[in-house]
Amino acid sequence: MPASPVIASDFDSGNIEVVDASNPIDVQLKMKKETFTEYDQKQHMQWFHFSVSNCKGTPLCLKIVNADEASYAQGYHGYWAFVSTDQKKWDRTKTSFDGKVIQIELTPEADKIWVAYFPPYSYDMHKELVTFANSSSECEHSVIGQSCQNRAMDLLKVGSGELKLWVIARQHPGESMAEWFMDGFIHELLSDSATATALRSKATLYLVPNMNPDGSVMGHLRTNAVGANLNREWCDTPEKNYKAPTQERSPEVLCTLKKMEETGVDFFMDVHGDEELPCNFLAGEFGLHSWGDKKTYIYQKYVQLAVEKTKPYFQTTYNYGNQLQGKGIKALGGATVSEKFDCCGTTLEMPYKNLQYPVQAEWNHFDCKELGKRFIDVMDSTCDLLKEKLPETYPKFEPWASRPYEVPKFDEPAYVGSHLIKNKSRSNVSE
Ligand SMILES: [Zn+2]
Prior knowledge:
The protein is α+β, with helices and mostly antiparallel strands.
């Protein structure tokens, strides 16, 4: 009888509970629920991250038996989990979901391995990123507030141009791809490349690489330490008799908005991950009454720039669809900022799954970094767009940039191995 695996999650962003680990081919696990979220009237759950020890060479079947109770359970269809022996290199491993239980199959190549929903970006890595940025003469670092558990809310200010661009990430802490994106974005922005230099002269960029440090450390998908879904905390929701942001529940949003009021905002992007769609996409705030032709024009051009300048990462067919006017959630970061500062507020979404659109390709944390790096070029051209004189009459907008746009049904990935594309060159990705 092979040894029983030893499962642990007592580390940064760890999340799992052991039900029964006595049989290596039937290890029963449960994800832990997050603190109750008043706005959503539920306890969120989706993220998992744990280590498995003492099973080198032993075939394992790890079963997450409460997967059907997760916030976006359907998102586990067509998804493969990540496994690592050193917490740096992460590979997908065979995973299935039958609508109830996630089954992760692997034979560990080391005495200890880590399994995660997506490659984690730890709080230590966050601090290293801030230290790196702070050491650059091009960057000014400041702490604009504190989280519920008194972690620093780090803001990086880069550039000296007239336009004020804000990019924030990881309001939803289990969307670790958002901070991988920021890592690539910040490294490139602080480089001496011609595009980065041009961007820094056209704009002043305000960057919050992690909006939710507490939730990140606690292994949450969706909420901060006291259960707030930060992307519903940007303004009051009178229909729910809900006041936000507050110092008690959402100090992370409160201090960010306060700083935005000081600086002004000409363009905003909020970086996220999406559990279901196997592609990268952007969302505008079509549901707002104030989202008119001018914002649609800028949004459409911005998405087109993302497609052109990040080939083949981006596409326009699959997204959240565009709501009818008046139907949007105003308490979203993108919506509140768009309305309050009369600017184009956008939300970037990256997948947990391998890419299916516009190409079938592997998708992992290195790709998120690479996408972040390429967005420097997108942002640079966006500055030119924001400075351009707007047309007298707008051209007819694309269907995906008009309301109401309904998204066609997408096909789930058909995995044929650990990677869909094995020979993809990664030589231009540093780490
Ligand atoms: Zn999100």
